Amino acid sequence: MGKKLKVKEKASPAKSGKVFNFRVLIESEEEDVIREIEITEDHTFEDFHDAIKKAFGFTGKQMASFYISNEDWEKGQEITLVPMDLDNSEEEEKVMVMSETKLRQLIKKPKTKILFIFDFLTMWTFYVELLGTGEPEKKTKYPRCTKKTGKAPAQNSKKAGKMGEDEDEMMKEFKGDPKSADVFSDEIFEGFDDFEEGFNDLEDMDGFSEIDKF
Question: Is residue 99 located within the same domain as residue 176?
Fold first, then answer.
């Protein structure tokens, strides 16, 4: 038998273009947890989504979105993981899809800020900021995590639908939790004495005594 010829597979072409250097901070109560990620402008937002998850040790295919933001981290253009069938009016911005959108399409200025929300039940929030750009290094695979600061929280450490501290405290007061602030404070009954005096005056009026009281 003749020897089988081994067909050498062609390597997939490397991504070209300049390299973005991003700082990514995850919202955490414990400490500042930061990762720096390098990725080329020709990668998609889906590639970036995967790189962030990997850098923080997150897994799964939960719903997620990027939002191009301003200086105050307000949500702007949305780039979602899966197509959304929304009846957007002409005035509203079209929702873009990660797999179809390259970074260079939306990242055009220095210090661009982006919000990344992962898992719409637990609402993990990542604050992404462009630190700078550079040229790709030879024989370097992108995207890559170049710096780690702090220990990433466990993905399951945040419960679905967990309320913030303010809402939680408000609900404690509503339910009359004795550990919370005094629900029946003087402010609630302010002016009650005046009402009671006025009610007593009504009893002195003719005919009022004939009305059934409860």
Answer: no
